[in-house]
Give the backbone structure.
Amino acid sequence: MKIRERLSFQFTILSALLLLAVLIVIYLLSAAYRRNDFSELLIDRAITNAQLFLAQDNLSVEKFREVQKKYPQTLPEENVHIYNDNNEPVFINNKIGEWPVSIIEAVKKKKTFYLNEKGKQTVGIYYADNSGNFTVLVSAVDKYGSLEMQQLFWVMFIAFFISVFILFFTGRVFSMIALSPIIKVISDVKFIRSSSLHKRLDTNSKAKDEINELSSTFNNLLEHLEQSFEAQSSFVAHASHELRTPVTSIIGNIEVILSQQREKDDYIKTLESVLLESEKLKSLLDNLFELTQSNIDIAEFNEVRLDELLWQVKDEWMNRIADSNIELEYQVPADTSKYTIMGNDHLLFLALGNIIKNAIKFSNNQTIYCKFFLQNNIPVISIRDQGIGISNDDLEKIFKPFFRGNNSFGYPGMGIGLSLSEKIFRLHNATIQINSIQYQGTEFLIIFNL
C-alpha cells in the first residue's frame, strides 16, 4: 500500500473515531437531558396532584368530584398514588401498580425519590399538609422523548456514514496535496545518476518544513558522494601511476639486459635494480592494502591505553631506524581511565607510526619530541620535529592520497602515510592539528575527542 493511500485511510479512521466519539457524547447528553426534563415534569405532576387532592378539605365532596373529573391525565401510562403516614393509599382507589412499603419509606427518608424501571420513570415526593403528611408517587412513560431519541439516533447514524464517506475522499485529496513535495523530490532523484552527481534538489532557505530538510540532507549526501567519486577517481589515477612506475622500470631493465649478451656484473646490477623496484612495489601494495583496511568495523574495537601505545610506537621506530632519537614525555594523571579509549590498537599503532616515521625522515634523524598530556580532560599527543616543515599551500593537501609537498622531493615515500593516518584517526573520533614553519619544523597534535 502506498503512503498516500495509507495516509488517507489513517486520516479517515482517525476522523471517524473522533466524530463517533462526539456523536456518542451528544447522544448520551441528550438522553440525560431528556430523563432529567421528564423527571422535572413528573415532580410538577406530583405536586399538582398533591395540591389538587389535598385541597378537598376546603371543598364539598360534590365540588371536589367535579374538579377531579375535569383534571386531565396528560402523560402516557401515568399512574398516581398517594399514601398517608401509615402507608395506606388515600384519595385515589387505584389498585394497579401499588408500591411496596420499602419504596414509600425510601420516599419519606429522601423526601424526593427517582426510579427508572423498564422504560417507566417514577418520582416520589413527601408532601406536608395541614391535614397531615403524605407520600405522592407519580409514574409515566416518556413516549415522546423516546421517539425523539430514536429520531436523533437515526439522524446521527446516517450523518456518521455520510461524513465518513466524505472524509475518505477528503483524506485522499489531503494526502495528495501533503505528499506532492515528496513526489517532486522522487521525480527529481530519478534523474540523478553517477554521471550527474553535480545536480541538486530545489530547496528554500526560508522554509523550515521536513521536506525542505529532507532535500537539504539529500543534497549534502550528493555533495559527499560527488567528493567521494572524485577522490576515488583521483585515487585510482594516482595509484595506477605509482604502480606503473616500478613495473615499467622492472620491464625496461629486463628488456635491456635481455637484448644482448651481458657480463655477470651487468646481470647482478639489473637484478639489484629489479629487486629495489620490486621492494618499492611491495611497499606501495602494502600501503594500499592498509589504506583499504582502515575502514575496519567499529565492532572490532577494544580498550586501548594511549600511553602504552605511544611507548610501543617509540620503541618500534627507534629499533627500525638506526641513529634515530625519540624523547617521550608524559603529563597525565594516575587514573588511566582518562586516557583509555575504545579503538583498534593495530590501526592506531600504524597511524602514530606513520607520523613518527615522517618526522624522523624529514628531520634527517634529528631528535623527535613526543609529549602526551590531557587538555580539558581530553587526551592529546604532540609529535614535534626539527625538519623541513610544510608550506602553507601544502597544509590543506597533505592528507590527500599520493600527495607530496614541493619540498619533499629527494626523500623516499609515496604520499600514502599521512592520508592513512588521518583516515584512522577520524575513525577513532580524533582530529589532527598541524603547526608548521617551513625549514624549522612541524608539530602534529592528535586530539582524541572522547
About this structure: The chain has a mean pLDDT of 80. The chain has three domains: 3-149, 210-293, 298-448.
